[in-house]
Design goal:
Blueprint lengths: L7 E6 L14 E17 L8 E17 L9 H10 L7 H17 L8 E11 L3 H9 L8 E3 L4 E3 L6 E3 L14 E3 L1
Parallel strand pairs: 2-4, 5-8
Antiparallel strand pairs: 1-4, 2-3, 6-7
Helix pairs in contact: 1-2
């Protein structure tokens, strides 16, 4: 029996992406479509105890990001922007370093390709497939994190640091939450 154990990652220029709805800007842009597939193996109980049967459950999250491209030899897509995108997509921090390097390197490559020289919008597609364990769900249930009852409370207009993603936020709007999926702040 084969189990899902490794992340899969791919980044490429995708001319088939529909960029017609992108508003023109005075600067060049990356149009980045992120697709992250979360894979979870679930064991199914069978009447026959001799054979374990596993079912693969897949959840796909898709987002589009527009990021400025300055057409520099390096750092056309800054690391902190890619880290933000990966957080939004739910990719855990310990899985990000390799992906981060490859996305930034690829962005530099297509920004400097002669083929793309006259293009204002550079379409990229990032596909990530991640095996997910039930550990996170079980550990949050064990601590009793039901809804918002155990969230850190912050005042509107205050600046604070999220204890999960360590991002600094200024709370201005009610119901605004940190961009990371599992952050721990709530507005009071």
């Amino acid at each position: 029996m084969e189990f899902v154990s490794d992340d899969y990652f791919d980044v490429h220029q995708d001319e088939s992406l529909d960029i017609s709805s992108v508003e023109p800007t005075p600067y060049d842009q990356f149009f980045i479509k992120f697709e992250v597939e979360f894979l979870r193996e679930q064991q199914q109980e069978e009447d026959d105890d001799e054979h374990d049967v596993f079912r693969l459950e897949s959840t796909i999250k898709t987002e589009i990001f527009l990021e400025r491209c300055d057409r520099l030899p390096h750092n056309n897509l800054p690391w902190h922007n890619v880290t933000r995108m990966l957080h939004i997509m739910g990719v855990e921090g310990d899985r990000q370093p390799m992906m981060l390097r490859q996305i930034c390197s690829f962005a530099d490559k297509i920004a400097n390709e002669p083929y793309n020289r006259n293009k204002k919008i550079l379409p990229m597609k990032v596909y990530i497939s991640i095996p997910v364990s039930d550990f996170i769900e079980e550990s949050s249930e064990a601590v009793g994190l039901d809804g918002n009852e155990d969230l850190e409370k912050v005042k509107l207009g205050s600046e604070c640091v999220c204890v999960i993603c360590t991002e600094r936020w200024r709370w201005e709007v009610k119901q605004q939450k940190c961009l990371a999926l599992m952050c721990s702040m709530e507005i009071v």
